[in-house]
């Protein structure tokens, strides 16, 4: 058996058009060619691939088993080429190939989803690279050039190297499971009492904040790598800790978690900044995303979405 030949992109497009249009005549009208040219192109494609793609014994050509298997490949190739051409056109027009964003773990996921959906709809050819990090890592990744744009709540003392814009805040509240000892106490809870219980604390892996603690009262604390783990342990009653209000809103409403009345930390506003390097302005897509964050975030965060 001879090896299959190399089909052309045009042959593959005609094959897909015949199936999508419902026959040779309809495909010919759609592609502005004669029916004989369409039929000849399909015959050549079958010759190239050494298989019969269409059963012509019926009024309307139907796919053979081989045709069904290869149609998906033909579609994939055509779509890949179309995507490549669209990306090349965008690059030629000055649009960057990729935008990288790092977002603070405290940032509400629902708000982030809105922003990223809008970006992908506006710039479908631009790859978006996203990282979710805690505190100092947001600044560090923008500082070392790993990410073009940062959305975070902690800023380095060397803030002159950045363009920083305050866009709102995230409300953090201390919570615990209803069966936790601190949740059983009435009235303000003193720091001395809070220190006696395990505090769940989010780890910060940035070298910028090495050795620093923010909002840590407990002498015994568990350092966790992600907010999801902290949330699960809080609900299990294994400690207490501060959480973004948006993430525990449903838990508070259903009683799975309760707010703690701490005398020194009954809740705080975690500021959110839009961070960029001053010496490396973003491209067209990155600038659009930064402007979108700046315009939309104050309103979204204010209304607690």
Automatic annotation (TrEMBL):
<feature type="domain" description="HTH lysR-type">
    <location>
        <begin position="7"/>
        <end position="64"/>
    </location>
</feature>
<comment type="similarity">
    <text>Belongs to the LysR transcriptional regulatory family.</text>
</comment>
<keyword id="KW-0805">Transcription regulation</keyword>
<keyword id="KW-0804">Transcription</keyword>
<dbReference type="Pfam" id="PF00126">
    <property type="entry name" value="HTH_1"/>
</dbReference>
<protein>
    <submittedName>
        <fullName>DNA-binding transcriptional regulator, LysR family</fullName>
    </submittedName>
</protein>
<dbReference type="InterPro" id="IPR005119">
    <property type="entry name" value="LysR_subst-bd"/>
</dbReference>
<dbReference type="GO" id="GO:0003700">
    <property type="term" value="F:DNA-binding transcription factor activity"/>
</dbReference>
<dbReference type="InterPro" id="IPR036388">
    <property type="entry name" value="WH-like_DNA-bd_sf"/>
</dbReference>
<dbReference type="InterPro" id="IPR036390">
    <property type="entry name" value="WH_DNA-bd_sf"/>
</dbReference>
<dbReference type="InterPro" id="IPR000847">
    <property type="entry name" value="LysR_HTH_N"/>
</dbReference>
<keyword id="KW-0238">DNA-binding</keyword>
<dbReference type="Pfam" id="PF03466">
    <property type="entry name" value="LysR_substrate"/>
</dbReference>
<dbReference type="GO" id="GO:0000976">
    <property type="term" value="F:transcription cis-regulatory region binding"/>
</dbReference>
């Amino acid at each position: 058996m001879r090896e299959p030949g190399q089909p052309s992109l045009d042959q593959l497009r005609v094959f897909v058009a015949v199936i999508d249009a419902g026959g040779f005549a309809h495909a010919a009208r759609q592609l502005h060619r004669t029916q004989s040219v369409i039929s000849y192109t399909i015959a050549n494609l079958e010759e190239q691939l050494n298989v019969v793609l269409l059963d012509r014994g019926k009024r309307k050509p139907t796919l053979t088993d081989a045709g069904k298997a290869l149609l998906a490949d033909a579609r994939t190739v055509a779509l890949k080429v179309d995507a490549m051409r669209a990306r090349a056109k965008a690059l030629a027009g000055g649009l960057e190939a990729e935008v990288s964003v790092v977002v603070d773990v405290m940032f509400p996921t629902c708000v982030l989803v809105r922003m990223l959906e809008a970006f992908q709809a506006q710039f479908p050819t631009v790859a978006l690279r996203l990282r979710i990090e805690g505190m100092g890592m947001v600044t560090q990744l923008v500082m070392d050039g790993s990410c073009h744009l940062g959305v975070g709540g902690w800023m380095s003392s060397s803030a002159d190297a950045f363009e920083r814009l305050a866009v709102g805040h995230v409300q953090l509240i201390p919570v615990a499971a209803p069966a936790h000892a601190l949740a059983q106490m009435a009235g303000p809870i003193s720091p001395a009492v809070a220190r006696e219980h395990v505090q769940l604390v989010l780890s910060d892996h940035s070298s910028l904040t090495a050795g620093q603690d923010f909002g840590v009262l407990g002498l015994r604390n568990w350092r966790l790598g992600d907010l999801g783990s902290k949330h699960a342990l809080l609900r299990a009653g294994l400690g207490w800790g501060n959480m973004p209000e948006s993430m525990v809103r449903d838990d508070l409403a259903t009683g799975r978690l309760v707010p703690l009345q701490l005398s020194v930390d009954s809740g705080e506003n975690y500021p959110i900044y839009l961070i960029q390097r001053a010496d490396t302005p973003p491209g067209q897509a990155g600038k659009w995303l930064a402007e979108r964050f700046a315009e939309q975030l104050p309103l979204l965060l204010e209304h607690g979405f």
